[in-house]
Amino acid sequence: MIAGTVALPEAVLAQEVNVYSHRQPELVQPLFDAFTAKTGIDVNVAFVDKGMVERLVAEGARSPADLVMTVDIARLAQIVDAGVTQPITDPVVLEAVPAELRAPDGQWIGLTSRARIVYASKERVAQGDVTTYEDLADPKWKGRICTRPFTDDYNVALTAAYLAHHDEDATKAWLEGIKANLARKPDGNDRSQVKSIWAGECDISLGNTYYMGQMLADPEQIEWANSVNLTFPVFEGDGTHVNVSGVAMTQAAPNKEEAIQLIEFLVSAEAQEIYAETNNEFPATPGVKRSELVASWGEFTANSLELTDIAALRPAALKLIEEVDLDG
Ligand code: FE
Question: Which residues constitute the domain of residue 207?
Fold first, then answer.
């Protein structure tokens, strides 16, 4: 409220929508600013780094949050499984986002997608050496792989996708093969693996596509980025592992109408372009331009798995990762 203004009656008070975001402020604020400029609806954001599900459950029907924005099908599924969401059935939203990037029952809607791929040393890995995810267990990579912990969400989802393509024994053997090929104990995040490649500690690592953009934009990390090629492995007989960032509507949603307007905006071509540009992710809405950098990586084929199937296999995947003690 601006000092000196007269309080307005309830009905004409600024409309608002409240978002709990697991995404970093700099990624989502440009979207909210554009939405507010267009509609006059304020977006209040609380950045929730840890304990999102616990917070939503504790607040229950009294939650001030209308929307939750997060990354990874695992986190979206955890929120839905906690019973704190309601389906998004708005026709504009369902029309804009392809079925494979949203929950069949509308409990979450994908806003961007990203592939989990291999970063490979320009110096020590020939183009075409990385082919499939299966191949990462091949002894030819012995002592050459760096990775963040496999118990982290991104690697659990990848392992769940592997499990969807193979049985438990084969998946376990794959995890054991990767463990045997590690240059060092899993540690750090996706970007620090690329730093390790740059430093000569290993030759390939797993990472999400958009981290290439983040590293290229960082004066310290640009050297790491420039030391690697991006390669898009596939599951044998299928495509590349893809995950999402997305949004869910809380059951409480005190500003449901405004929340739906915001989701409609987020899936619009205008917002999708901002989103894709800001974080170098793939737009969820077909026909929206990829950022120049993302476009430079070329086309790839996404695997045919349903994200909800990946989510369902997550506990089994995590159990195998722990059995193999990949991070140990
Ligand atoms: Fe990330």
Answer: 114-241+302-324
Compute the distance between CA of residue 190 and CA of residue 42 in angstroms, rounded to an integer. 34
Q: How far is the CA of 11 from the centre of ligand 1 (A)?
A: 40
Q: Rounded to the nearest whole angstrom, what is the distance from the C-alpha of residue 228 to the centroid of ligand 1?
A: 18
For residue 78, how far is its CA from the centre of ligand 1 (angstroms)?
17
Q: What is the mean pLDDT of residues 6-30?
A: 79
Instruction: Specify the pTM.
Output: 0.91
pLDDT tens track for 183-226: 999 999 999 999 999 999 999 999 999 999 999 999 999 999 99
- The predicted model gives 145-173 an average pLDDT of 97
Task: Say whether pLDDT at 3 is over 50.
Answer: no
The Cα 187–Cα 160 span in angstroms is 20
Q: How far is the centre of ligand 1, averaged over its atoms, from the C-alpha of 250 (Å)?
A: 23
For residues 108 and 246, membership in a common domain is answered with yes
Cα gap 105→84, rounded to integer Å: 14
Instruction: Give CA–CA dist 42/35, Å, rounded.
Output: 8
DSSP states along 277-305: HHH-PEESSTTPPPPHHHHHT---PBP--
Ligand 1 mean position, distance from CA 197 (Å): 19
Provide the CATH number for the domain around residue 255.
Answer: 3.40.190.10
Structure tokens at 110: 């994908």
